[in-house]
């Protein structure tokens, strides 16, 4: 009995573009590219263990850690500087990479509370 071959998988057009950008980028404030998966179509990253800056669980955790108050302003400034360093790296690359979708869900936080830029799907080379 003949085996049925799997149908060809069509990748979203932006996925190979994002993988192509990520594979060239190595910086402490960018999420690391680990690989590209075809089924299901996705990019594998060295994802930080915490969550995005916009995630409510992180917001709740901050309230527990900081006794119901906001994250200390020094820590917030460090995370903003981390995001800025990641963006600066992209903008000064050759050719320059313009992210075009900077928002809190695209900024991840690791165990040391460092911020990393992710989701380069809409990025464009200039």
UniProtKB/TrEMBL annotation:
Coiled coil: none annotated. InterPro entries: Kinase-like_dom_sf, Prot_kinase_dom, Ser-Thr/Tyr_kinase_cat_dom, Ser/Thr_kinase_AS, Ser_Thr_protein_kinase. SUPFAM superfamilies: Protein kinase-like (PK-like). Pfam families: PK_Tyr_Ser-Thr. It comes from the Eukaryota. GO terms for biological process: signal transduction. GO terms for molecular function: ATP binding; protein kinase activity. Residues 1-126 form the Protein kinase domain. One of its GO terms (cellular component) is cytoplasm. PANTHER family: DUAL SPECIFICITY PROTEIN KINASE ZAK2-RELATED, SERINE-THREONINE PROTEIN KINASE. This is Protein kinase domain-containing protein. It comes from Chlorella variabilis (Green alga).
């Amino acid at each position: 009995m003949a085996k049925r071959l799997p149908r060809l998988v069509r990748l979203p057009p932006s996925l190979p573009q994002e993988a192509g950008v990520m594979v060239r980028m190595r910086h402490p404030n960018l999420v690391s590219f680990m690989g590209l998966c075809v089924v299901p179509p996705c990019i594998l990253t060295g994802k930080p263990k915490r969550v995005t800056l916009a995630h409510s669980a992180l917001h709740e955790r901050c309230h527990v850690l900081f006794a119901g108050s906001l994250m200390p302003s020094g820590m917030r400034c460090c995370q903003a500087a981390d995001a800025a360093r990641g963006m600066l790296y992209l903008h000064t690359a050759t050719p320059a990479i313009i992210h075009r979708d900077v928002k809190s869900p695209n900024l991840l936080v690791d165990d040391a509370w460092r911020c990393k830029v992710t989701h380069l799907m809409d990025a464009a080379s200039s």
